[in-house]
Amino acid sequence: MKNIRMTVGGLELQGQLDDSSLAERVWQTLPCESHGETWGKEVYFPIGLHLENTRPVEEVNAGDIAYWPEGQDLCIFFGSTPKSTDDKPVVASPVTVIGSFRFDPRDFDKIRRERQGIPVRVARMETGAVPASVDASSSDDDRQ
Question: Domains of the chain, with CATH numbers?
Fold first, then answer.
């Protein structure tokens, strides 16, 4: 697992990328800065990689980080999307989950939006700066 720090519209988040080859390709591009958009409670933003889905899924969990090849975007999920029938995110088209991040359910409402979109920066965490264990399946009370 590789530790990352994301700044999404002024909101500071910590996460981890898994050990997959797709996550490794994303890791090699860091740091990256972009402007993102929202789709429901998902933030997605271009990262400049043209990759294929390695483990495509259509349902993800809040707290997941995924790569969306159709948009060449990284996606982070805070909750439901327009395709959801409950609080669980459902993607627009298949993605590959490559990591997870810690968040408070109220964080999504704190994201600052600008005219050109949501400013996003994703970077490797400094050596020795290890975040608390990231578990997207933990209850809301267990999240930072």
Answer: 2-133 (2.40.100.20)
